[in-house]
Design brief:
Rossmann fold; Jelly Rolls; 2 domains; ten-stranded mixed sheet; 5 helices; elongated
């Protein structure tokens, strides 16, 4: 299945899009930073986003309390797999279920769209899903308009893909991020510890897109970007 997106590399690994049920007002902007999808999974109300984009998903998953029944029927009649969960017995959010389902395809990269906006609790929960142990070895990005979020992996250089002057904030989650070192950013860090709850890593900018990257030794480090172009 071919869906719109802009390749950011020549990687041959699969890419999965997870469509959540957030407002996604600036979806056309977000799609500039997503790789083309091999598989699309709609998390409940994400079916509305799929329909808006003219995409037939491979899977619809969730309790389906946010999806019009006629839309479920439309996709089901088209051969789309539908996995319905009982709202009162499932422990996961629909977005979490969709992300876990994405692992079946062993993707090299996952992009989550429609995950931010609307209810603040859902937005925060979706961001924190980046720290889910099941995704520790996966490249998962949340896109919302010109904003991009991903969790950097400790013990390796994490490429920061963007353009000159794009904003890059480095935010420790829950615990300190130790020995944080950057390259290709306007204000470099060299072996610094970023403390959770402090804003030391906010509002850096890309100076060299070819070199931009971050490395740290231990902890959890969220990379929050605002693309300027």
């Amino acid at each position: 299945m071919s869906v719109p997106g802009k390749p950011r590399s020549t990687d041959k690994t699969n890419c999965v899009w997870v469509l959540a049920s957030g407002p996604a007002a600036d979806i056309d902007i977000a799609l500039r930073y997503a790789d083309p999808a091999d598989v699309v999974i709609a998390a409940d109300g994400g079916t509305l986003l799929a329909d808006r984009l003219g995409i037939t998903p491979s899977l619809i998953i969730g309790d389906l309390d946010s999806t019009p029944s006629d839309l479920v029927t439309k996709y089901s009649d088209a051969g789309v797999e539908v996995r319905r969960y009982d709202h009162n017995t499932k422990w996961e959010t629909d977005t979490e279920l969709a992300l876990l389902a994405a692992l079946y395809y062993s993707p090299g990269r996952i992009f989550v769209l429609g995950a931010i906006g609307g209810r603040l609790d859902h937005s925060l929960a979706n961001v924190l899903l980046l720290t889910h142990p099941s995704f520790a070895d996966r490249d998962v990005h949340i896109l919302d308009g010109s904003n991009e979020l991903f969790l950097a992996k400790p013990g390796e250089w994490n490429s920061i893909k963007g353009h000159p002057n794009d904003i890059v904030s480095l935010l420790p989650i829950g615990v300190e991020a130790e020995a944080v070192t950057t390259r290709g950013l306007r204000w470099p860090l060299n072996g610094e510890t970023l403390v959770a709850g402090k804003a030391r890593g906010v509002s850096n900018r890309i100076s060299d897109p070819e070199a931009a990257a971050v490395r740290y030794d231990a902890g959890q480090l969220l990379v929050a970007m605002v693309h300027e172009t």
